[in-house]
Amino acid sequence: MTTATSKASKTRVILVGVGGASCAGKTSLAKHLRRLLSPHAVLLHMDDFAPASEDVPISKEHGIQDWDDPETCILWPKARAAIAQIKKTGHLPPGHTSNDHLNQLSAVGIEPEAEAYWTAELRRVADDSAARGEDIVWVLIDGFVLYYDAEVASLLDVKLFVQVPYDVLKARREKRSTYALQNPDSIGEVWTDPPNYFDNIVYPGYLKAHAHLFANGDVEHGALLPGTGITVLRPGEGVPGMTKIVSQACEVLVEDVKDGKKVFVEAA
């Protein structure tokens, strides 16, 4: 992934977590970052490790499938192994496929001036690193329960968390209530939220997945506990809001190149 003039002899792999609730905007953020970091970035969706539909448990309380319980909504052994391998190689595992394209999200752009600035700034960072003999590969990993698993969280070099208020999350989720299933064994199937699914399943799962990160378990208003290493991003609505969190995320990435720990793999 070096440029034509690069003299890089080592590849530095930087794993960037992009977490947040369902409909917080984390996938849109991750896709913007991948584009700005291109050709030095790859994107992994935690949804690619969702179980097959027949393996999703039924909520004992509500009698419907629970796709959001952090203990069961991800095939954690498979996800851990894949992320650990990416950390070592800088490449997605052989044969890994993503079905994210089956879910069509409303595109929220960013302001042209910000896009031009960060494209140039991140290209400069990559070129400066190459001149020092380092070829950077950014691995963006987005997921709504990304920070629940301690082993996965420990593998991440940068941790971004998109924090959006309950009422905004609910409105967005209820507007977009049908999803194409991601597991390869479930291709062609879709899921439509039953009534009250956000309040009964989605939001409680979000709180469960993140309560350990915040003081008093208050995910919406509590302060981050010491040692999480997470940067909280709070977007507004529309293009200005997305521009804001993309810019904040890019600032974190640039600082990580300067100050972060160096993890190398052999250049291909």
TrEMBL record:
Gene3D superfamilies for the chain: P-loop containing nucleotide triphosphate hydrolases
Keyword Cytoplasm part of the UniProt annotation: no
Alphabetized GO MF terms: kinase activity
UniProtKB keywords: Kinase, Transferase
CDD domains given in the database record: NRK1 (cd02024)
PANTHER family in alphabetical order: URIDINE KINASE (PTHR10285)
The protein's name: Nicotinamide riboside kinase
